[in-house]
Amino acid sequence: MTAMVPRIVNFLLGLWLIVSAFIWPHMAAQKANAIASGMLAAIFAGSGLLDRQVRYLNLIIGAWLVSSGIYLMHFRSATMWNEVVTGIALSAVALLPGRQRKNAV
Predict the structure, then answer these.
(1) CA-to-CA distance for 24 and 43, rounded, in angstroms?
(2) What is the Cα–Cα distance from 4 to 95, expressed in whole angstroms?
């Protein structure tokens, strides 16, 4: 069960990105970026339960969010900080391996 915690956190971060795109105003590019990145993060988090290497894709998504949050135009600085902080969190959690389950013999 504890192996699932990092993947669940990344799934929730992906959902947060999608929801945040509709909570406050975004420029069109940042809104599309938040929705697409959130969907991919949620998909990769779910896939990470089956294949542990897939979790590294969320590391890439997180790095993308940090850079795009800084470089894409935005209405409010809160939008930029949301994407930067969420990207950092997504990347950090993607690095957590979770515990390996021991096989019963």
Answers:
(1) 24
(2) 13
Sign of CA dihedral 16, 17, 22, 26: positive
The separation between CA 48 and the C-alpha centre of its own chain, rounded to angstroms, equals 12
**45 Cβ contact partners less than 8 Å away, ≥ 6 residues apart:** 7, 8, 10, 11, 13, 14, 55, 58
- 27 three-class SS: coil
Note the pTM of the prediction, 2 decimals.
Answer: 0.85
Query: 5-53, pLDDT tens digit by residue?
Result: 888 899 999 999 999 999 988 889 999 999 999 999 999 988 877 777 8
Q: Who's near 51: CB < 8 A, 6+ residues apart? A: none
Contact of 56 with 97, CB cutoff 8 Å: no
